[in-house]
Amino acid sequence: MTGPPPALSVEGLTVRYGDRTALHRVDLEVRPGELVALTGPNGSGKTTLIRAALGLTPLSEGTVRLFGTSTTALSVRARALRVAWVPQDEAPQDNVRVLDYVLYGRFAHLPPFTGEGPSDRAKATQALEEMGLRDRADSGVLELSGGERQRLLLARGLAQEAPLLLLDEPTAHLDIGHQLDLLDRVRRLVRDRGVCAVAALHDLNLAGRYADRVVVLSHGRLVADGPPDATLTETILRTVWGVESQRRRDPRTGATYLVPYRPSDPSSPFPPGSRGRLHVIGGGGAAAGILHGLVDAGWSVTAGVLPLLDSDAEAADELGVPYVPEIPFAPIGEDARARLRDLLAQAQAIVVAPIAVGPSNLANLQELRGSTPRAPILFVEPGPSADRDFTGGAATALRAQLLAEGAETVADVPALLRRLSALPGAAPAATIATGR
Fold first, then answer.
1. Assigned superfamily of 8-262
2. Among candidate residues 399, 356, 355, 352, the one with its CA nearest the CA of residue 380
């Protein structure tokens, strides 16, 4: 026994605009009760796919069905009974009363040549209530804020009572508070009303937080489709958006999210001709001069765990130095520590900048314990290290232990460079590749 047809079924969909192919053989199904996020870079085909689902764009190849019926076989009214469209933005030309604007959504339910009745007004009022706009029913639409206007568009879609909602960039131009509010409301509609929704979203982390599935488009092709855990990956962000990232999991909700930190370098992070691989532990601006000195001297460099917006993170971004991003003022999490261990394992030597050490970044030093037998550790210390210990002595004790196990100290960057030149296997300065 077969179940109900998909709310939206796209098979082999190709759309061309002249010589340009906007969508190429896309297959997609959306089932009732699902919230699907449609993501991809600008120009990937998100809006074209939504317009094709609405029957507003001619198909070059393939089929689009709404609840089992081809869009080409449905009249405009019949389509409006199945699917409601919430556009990215709409600029009303007249200062129409908010309630009347929502009543436009009742068009498909009205017999020809008739006006709205009490039932239609009740449904429009209920839609305003659900969107938190009941008190604005008699206001003009031009008097609403941007966030209120976006909720108004969603209210009109609700009044349409279509079982499928298509939202084209509904959070565009909204601040983060209004973005969360709007998507909270869409999530509740899917849960409480039993509708299904497809929302084109730029923000991958919002997609992962709210969607049951995330569909990724790139250059008009569908490249990923699945739950957020399967689709929000460092590889997807690198290959589709060209951005390096760190994948994390929210400990409160379990949701997957990505922390982007720099554009991808299509070449290896360790260019040919470099003198070797070094790893720098920094933070708070203590490592910026060291990073510049090492890169200028021809070393391939990675950095440890750095808070987003930290001045050392900015220096690493400027130099193209890979590092592990972390939320500012937060303890270093297990995911970040695992990534840190990967970078430490690649290093021929480890350089510790004169950082202030507190409970949140102590893990940067703790992870060095396993590195001592293999990679030399060099502390750059222009002054007393105890002055930078805010861990109640834990950092000082750890430093002493590392020194007892073979770590060394150097006074400044020139002394560091001289010491690094003596490392076994280090290429001489004369072989450094130019072009940095």
1. P-loop containing nucleotide triphosphate hydrolases (3.40.50.300)
2. 352
